[in-house]
């Protein structure tokens, strides 16, 4: 339910709570496994395009979460092979824009996309994912299980 809150001369509509079905991550989530990131990416994408209004703060948040999970799944993106995503999810946001420009810190330290780099990159993305998740999901959302 939306309501109007009065803060002196400033009026704003607060957004209703939105259920985030992909949080918390399952205990079986393996940050090194592309298949787990792929599954998470699909969940985020479906949640985002099926019920989050584009004008909502949750849309921008979910879009950023999607791009983190998508790049963790396809670290060579935009090179190499990758699945098509829903075209409503534009590649906008600090992380994906830096990634597409090829000037993200993770890319600048990469000489090849080997397995060691992929694990380090996915660890970084998991940290970013958790930091980002904490903006709207206050309970613990990842307990390391498999690695």
Query: What is the averaged pLDDT score?
Result: 81
Class from helix and strand fractions: mainly alpha
| Alpha carbon gap, first and last residue | 40 Å
Provide the gyration radius in Å.
Answer: 17 Å
Discrete helix count: 5
Quantity of strands, as a count: 2
Whole-number tally of structural domains: 1
Order of helices and strands: EEHHHHH
Q: Which key phrases capture this entry?
A:
single chain; 147 residues; mainly alpha; 7% strand; globular; disordered N terminus
What does this structure look like?
The structure is a single chain. With 147 residues, this protein is mainly alpha-helical. The protein has one domain. Helices cover 45% and strands 7% of the residues. A two-stranded antiparallel sheet has the order 1-2. The longest helix has 19 residues. It is globular, with a radius of gyration of 17 Å. It starts with a strand and ends in a 14-residue tail after the last helix. The N terminus is likely disordered.
Topology readout:
Layout: E1 3-7, E2 10-14, H1 34-51, H2 57-73, H3 94-101, H4 105-108, H5 115-133
In short:
By secondary structure, the chain is mostly helical.
């Amino acid at each position: 339910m939306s309501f109007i809150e009065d803060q002196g001369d400033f009026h704003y509509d607060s957004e209703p709570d939105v259920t985030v079905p992909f949080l918390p991550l399952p205990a079986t989530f393996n940050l090194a496994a592309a298949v787990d990131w792929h599954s998470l990416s699909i969940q985020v994408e479906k949640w985002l395009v099926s019920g989050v209004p584009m004008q909502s703060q949750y849309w921008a948040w979910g879009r950023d979460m999607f791009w983190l999970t998508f790049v963790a799944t396809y670290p060579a993106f935009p090179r190499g092979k990758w699945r098509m995503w829903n075209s409503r999810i534009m590649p906008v946001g600090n992380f994906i824009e830096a990634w597409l420009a090829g000037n993200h810190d993770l890319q600048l330290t990469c000489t090849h996309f080997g397995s060691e780099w992929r694990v380090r990159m996915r660890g970084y993305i998991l940290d970013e994912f958790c930091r980002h998740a904490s903006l709207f999901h206050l309970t613990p959302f990842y307990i390391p299980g498999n690695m």
